[in-house]
Amino acid sequence: MTAPIVLPWPLRSGLEAATRALLDLGDQSSVDFLRPPGEAALVSPDSVSWRVFKNPLSLFIGGVAAVMMELAEPRVRTGVWEHTTFRIDPIQRLRRTGLAAMVTIYGARGTAEAMIARVSRMHNRIAGSTPAGKAYRANDPELLNWVQGTAAYGFLQAYHAYVRPLSDLERDHYYAEGIFAASLYGASASTSEAALKMRFEAMANQLERSDILFEFLAIMRSAPILPLPLRPVQSLLIRAAIDLTPPWLRTIVGLTDHGLNALEAGVVRQIGAFADRLVLETNPAVQACRRMRLPANYLYVHDNVLCLNLDRTTMSPIGTKQTFHDRVPTSAIGRKADIVSTSCNVR
Q1: Rounded to an integer, what distance in angstroms lies between the CA atom of residue 331 and that of residue 69?
Q2: Is 317 exposed, middle or buried (0-12, 13-18, 19+ CB in 10 A)?
Q3: Helix (H, G, I), strand (E, B), or coil: what is residue 154?
Q4: What sign does the CA torsion over 77, 272, 224, 7 have?
Q5: In angstroms, rounded to a whole number, what is the distance separating the alpha carbons of residues 92 and 291?
Q6: What is the pLDDT of residues 112-169, one digit of tens each?
């Protein structure tokens, strides 16, 4: 069992304030994850999702990786860049996105459904054309599926790579847990890692390099996003996110030499493992546990984790076998012949 960490008051107070600030929108959009008492979320507390999303470090890394993948799709890229405030107020935009993810997983069901309905209404008003003249709608099921799939992949893969390896069965459970929430957004979630791989393969030929992706990464490196104690490693975490994306996609978008070395990856894993044991009252995961009358450290005691009820033979440390992250979509190989020689390596 991995013991949870409860810091002494002076340190805890500073981190609590920093955590609160990450989701503080400064308006009426903030959510009380403690209420209504006893109301269930869209996903069960004993799910893989509740344990994955509690870790703020892997959420940051996974969120950046997901946006990178989204911006490789020209219709999504144009919609994000032209219809959001990301360029002029990236911190507020990231807070809104982070809060939406937290509400989807930990918010009371009524709160989550109301928020998702507002997002869907907003998507219904967004449409346009890419610079190449291709029409798009934000509520296009194909685009919603791509955004949902990349987000699910990013958050899970970040936890798996930089916090704690998850079994094949745990990862499949995680993807299946997102089906209902995805349907509320208008998307169709992949029910397993294999299904998500097929979805990525189907989209590979539509992905492309763009200067906007590099502008996004520059913003993420320079904006004061993380709490002050983590600010010195912000650039490192951005490169951890780059390293998290599939090698074949990095080849397409031109990011093959921007990842981590072995020493840096080890540092990120150390920070991720520490964050996974840190119990903070301002974390929506802890507040949701309290709403459900569970102990504050419920998600931090790894003896409760689903994998202990599954077949441990599916577990494997990072680097010992090829994972979904490393596999090259066959459709991408047809368009980018050089991907084969650069992307088939095993992490």
Answers
A1: 17
A2: exposed
A3: helix
A4: positive
A5: 27
A6: 999 999 999 999 999 999 999 999 999 999 999 999 999 999 999 999 999 999 999 9
